[in-house]
């Protein structure tokens, strides 16, 4: 991945984490309002003309249901943010490696590059013919010296 794609991925994951956290807070606050207001509204409008000798089961289940919903969503948000956090750390590490490779140019300096160019140029230069004797002449001189 290139740097811009990694930066976009990190930004997108962070934005998603913030969005889910805000949604979790909204769910908790909404459940508090539902727990506080819904039983009184039900009694006022649904059970207005009924003679109640005991508390309806619906009024007992409302706080339990809202708590269960908000707790489940908060757990979902926490685990989602943990996994996104791990992905963010991994992408940041990849970005740091990519930036260090680009910034350091693999650790070579201009002086080292110039020296390497000289070595390559000298290796590629045509070899000059030295005053070496041919193989045939060398063999004959060895034979003569051996006698």
Could you please describe the fold and organization of this structure?
81% of the residues lie in helices and 0% in strands. The chain is mainly alpha-helical. The model has no long low-confidence stretch (mean pLDDT 82).
List keywords for this structure.
mainly alpha; 147 residues
Write the layout of secondary structure elements.
Layout: H1 3-46, H2 57-104, H3 110-124, H4 135-146
Listing every helix as H and every strand as E from the N terminus to the C terminus, the arrangement reads HHHH
Shape: rod-shaped
Query: Over all CA atoms, what is the radius of gyration?
Result: 40 Å
Number of helices: 4
Oligomeric grouping of the chains: single chain
Straight-line N-to-C gap: 74 Å
Low-confidence stretches: none
Helix content: over 70%
Number of strands: 0
Give a short account of the largest sheet.
none
Can you give the mean pLDDT?
Answer: 82
What is the structural class?
A: mainly alpha
Percent of sequence in beta strands: under 5%
What is the gist of this entry?
With 147 residues, the protein is an all-alpha fold.
């Amino acid at each position: 991945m290139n740097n811009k794609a990694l930066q976009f991925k990190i930004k997108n994951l962070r934005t998603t984490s913030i969005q889910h956290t805000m949604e979790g807070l909204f769910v908790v606050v909404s459940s508090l309002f539902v727990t506080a207001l819904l039983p009184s509204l039900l009694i006022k409008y649904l059970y207005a003309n009924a003679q109640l000798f005991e508390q309806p089961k619906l009024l007992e289940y409302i706080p339990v249901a809202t708590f269960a919903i908000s707790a489940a969503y908060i757990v979902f948000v926490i685990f989602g943010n943990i996994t996104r956090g791990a992905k963010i750390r991994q992408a940041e590490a990849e970005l740091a490696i990519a930036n260090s490779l680009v910034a350091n140019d693999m650790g070579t300096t201009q002086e080292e590059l110039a020296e390497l160019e000289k070595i390559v140029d000298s290796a590629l230069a045509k070899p000059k013919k030295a005053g070496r004797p041919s193989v045939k002449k060398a063999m004959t001189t060895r034979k003569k010296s051996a006698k």
